[in-house]
Amino acid sequence: xxxxxxxxxxxDVRLRAYAPYSKxxxxxxxxxxxxxxxxxxxxxxxxxxxxxxxxxSALFSAVAAGCTEFSQIVIVADxxxxxxxxxxxxxxxxxxxxxxxITSTNLQGEVFQANLRDLLPRPKAGILGT
Length: 130
What we know:
Blueprint: H1 3-14, E1 26-32, E2 37-41, H2 54-64, E3 70-77, H3 87-96, E4 101-106, E5 111-115, H4 116-119
Parallel strand pairs: 3-4
Antiparallel strand pairs: 1-2, 1-3, 4-5
């Protein structure tokens, strides 16, 4: 699946985000190694710490479907600059795909690309004695 298709899926699911507090809707499309695509949007809670980001929402849907290998994620948000996954999302994504290709875009068409390994070096360093 190409970037434009993933971008459109992420853009579509972004409109379903539950963001009554921040009004900041984010959508994500996660491409599995087997070609399946899982989408997710942010779901807020009045206790912000219980909020789930779009990236984790997509990943959790994929895991629930039995998929644990991924190659790319596309994230869409209405922001001045393309957003990247937060620290929590980076850590959770790294559990399954430390070399995940990340493409973020805003509604104006600006694009940011990175490899998860560059955004989160040494994701398991210091954990469980490693």
